[in-house]
Amino acid sequence: MSTLTSSTVAPVDFAGLAARFRPVFARIAAGASAREQDHRLPAEQIKELTAAGFGALRVPVADGGLGASLPQLFRLLTELAAADSNIAQALRGHFAFVEDRLVASGAQRDVWLARFVRGEIVGNSWTEVGSVTVGDVITRVRPAVGGKPGELVVNGTKYYSTGSIFADWIDTFAQVGDTGKNVIAVVNAHQPGVTHSDDWDGFGQRTTGSGTSTFVDALVTEENVIDFDTRFKYQTAFYQAVLLAVLAGTVKAAEVEIAAEVKARTRIFSHGNSQSFATDPQILQVVGEVSAQAFAAEAIVEKAAWALQGAFEGAFLSDVVEEERLNDLAELATAQAQVVLVALATRATSDIFDALAASGVSRSKNLDRHWRNARTAASHNPWVFKARIVGDYVVNGTQPNRIWSIGAAPK
């Protein structure tokens, strides 16, 4: 068992990590379009990833994991998103919880790292259902009636439970019934008190396994109820960075498919510029622009990931002021990245059709899924608010709010 500090994080060879997972990514990509069309959840694909150790990417080598840095993690998440953006987003809650356990201390840290190494996956369940006033939490944790010492129950309903349908554990935001303390209750998903509905009805990211999670006297042990105030400080930046990787991977997937379609096309236009679509300079310009946008998207994700790496390392400094500064920088970096990448990704995944003519919109090709997926991922955490926050920092030095919530406006 290791005690992690920034000075003990040894560099891991990215080429070796990539070689381990790229064959899995290729198999995932081969069936991505069909799964989306048929609405088949990628449960087997996620199992193959976890069996290969993907869920333990961030776990230190000394603890049985692969020891990836945050830039390495996000490079691989971008590649995974290029194969199937749904799967990358489905693992968002898992990697966030892994990150939280990495900066934690005590015996439970080692317990959780061992679970990740065994291939156990954590889902996400935070957003309250219904007209809950912004900031309120109605999901409750209370002592189990007639239960054993340290045995509690969770009751509540959540939406946007991305990835929870694939999970062994569900990271659930709740309040302690008698104190009102905000906590994370990590609930074992394999029990009768937990149900999950695949009822997400968005037009994109259809197979993330999102939807409604319901907890009815779901058992949770005291050691798996974590004080929310101890949660890793760069969490919102981390969650946003996963969506950035989803967007970047989606653009890359669009680039790959548009190039293949243009190369294979035999029909031309009489008023075009070549006897071949694959050599028409105007068509090549469109493909080149999308490729450049994919390049820029990946660079943006990497820049944000380095800011997150700084925040991670800041968690092990004995300097609270510097730690806070690094966390603010990570929040700002992911916000700046989001503002740019949303526009870039939605444009690139729309522009692909300029190179394909009417046949490109064929339902059988399913190329519109890239725009739908990008538009859906881009709609989380509206960028317009992030742009204002960045502007307020640049002009007035106002520090970004790293914790926020969603709900009905107060009456």
UniProtKB/TrEMBL annotation:
<dbReference type="GO" id="GO:0006552">
    <property type="term" value="P:L-leucine catabolic process"/>
</dbReference>
<dbReference type="InterPro" id="IPR037069">
    <property type="entry name" value="AcylCoA_DH/ox_N_sf"/>
</dbReference>
<feature type="domain" description="Acyl-CoA dehydrogenase C-terminal">
    <location>
        <begin position="249"/>
        <end position="381"/>
    </location>
</feature>
<dbReference type="InterPro" id="IPR036250">
    <property type="entry name" value="AcylCo_DH-like_C"/>
</dbReference>
<dbReference type="InterPro" id="IPR013107">
    <property type="entry name" value="Acyl-CoA_DH_C"/>
</dbReference>
<dbReference type="GO" id="GO:0008470">
    <property type="term" value="F:3-methylbutanoyl-CoA dehydrogenase activity"/>
</dbReference>
<dbReference type="Pfam" id="PF02771">
    <property type="entry name" value="Acyl-CoA_dh_N"/>
</dbReference>
<dbReference type="GO" id="GO:0050660">
    <property type="term" value="F:flavin adenine dinucleotide binding"/>
</dbReference>
<keyword id="KW-0560">Oxidoreductase</keyword>
<protein>
    <submittedName>
        <fullName>Acyl-CoA dehydrogenase</fullName>
    </submittedName>
</protein>
<dbReference type="InterPro" id="IPR013786">
    <property type="entry name" value="AcylCoA_DH/ox_N"/>
</dbReference>
<dbReference type="InterPro" id="IPR009100">
    <property type="entry name" value="AcylCoA_DH/oxidase_NM_dom_sf"/>
</dbReference>
<dbReference type="InterPro" id="IPR046373">
    <property type="entry name" value="Acyl-CoA_Oxase/DH_mid-dom_sf"/>
</dbReference>
<feature type="domain" description="Acyl-CoA dehydrogenase/oxidase N-terminal">
    <location>
        <begin position="27"/>
        <end position="120"/>
    </location>
</feature>
<dbReference type="Pfam" id="PF08028">
    <property type="entry name" value="Acyl-CoA_dh_2"/>
</dbReference>
